[in-house]
User: Which sequence fits this backbone?
């Protein structure tokens, strides 16, 4: 796969980019980046081939297309364990998902499970479960008219304020404002 060469000497600086800022404390996910790239691509003019090529290149970097094959994860979970955990977590988001129970599910001790999970998924079990719950909440906010309190309960949050606090931390906006903005856009 080849990418369109871009003359970087002629590039015009764009104000508002955070590339030069430290983002260590910011929680970001590939889903957020994917949404931004899709919105960027939709907003491009029909004749903006160079910009489209750059968006495609950024997307390829995110998903690893065109890069050399990744080395196998050392100390991670076996593929069957990762599949089993993904399925179990997604089917039980509304319940209590502890590291001990998840470890037992794939026959690992809780301490080893935590390290293996992070090596495989790139985040702790708690962070992964929280992200999946927030993604499920976003889906429900767009596809139903359920109140946020009910959505919080269905996605395994303690209450509506717990959902709102984590949602605002993740998305940077309150859930109700996000729901209104994304319903109008759809």
Assistant:
């Amino acid at each position: 796969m080849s990418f369109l060469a871009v003359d970087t000497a002629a590039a015009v600086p764009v104000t508002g980019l955070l590339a030069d800022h430290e983002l260590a404390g910011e929680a970001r996910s590939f889903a957020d980046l994917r949404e931004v790239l899709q919105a960027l691509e939709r907003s491009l003019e029909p004749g903006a081939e160079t910009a489209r090529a750059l968006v495609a290149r950024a997307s390829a970097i995110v998903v690893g297309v065109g890069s050399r094959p990744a080395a196998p994860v050392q100390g991670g979970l076996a593929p069957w364990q990762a599949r089993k955990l993904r399925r179990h977590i997604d089917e039980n988001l509304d319940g209590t998902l502890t590291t001990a129970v998840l470890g037992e599910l794939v026959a690992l001790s809780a301490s080893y499970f935590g390290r293996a999970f992070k090596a495989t998924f790139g985040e702790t079990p708690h962070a992964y479960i929280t992200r999946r719950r927030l993604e499920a909440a976003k889906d429900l906010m767009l596809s139903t008219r359920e109140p946020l309190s009910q959505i919080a309960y269905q996605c395994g949050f303690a209450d509506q304020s717990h959902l709102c606090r984590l949602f605002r931390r993740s998305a940077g906006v309150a859930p109700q404002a996000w729901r209104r903005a994304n319903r109008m856009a759809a």
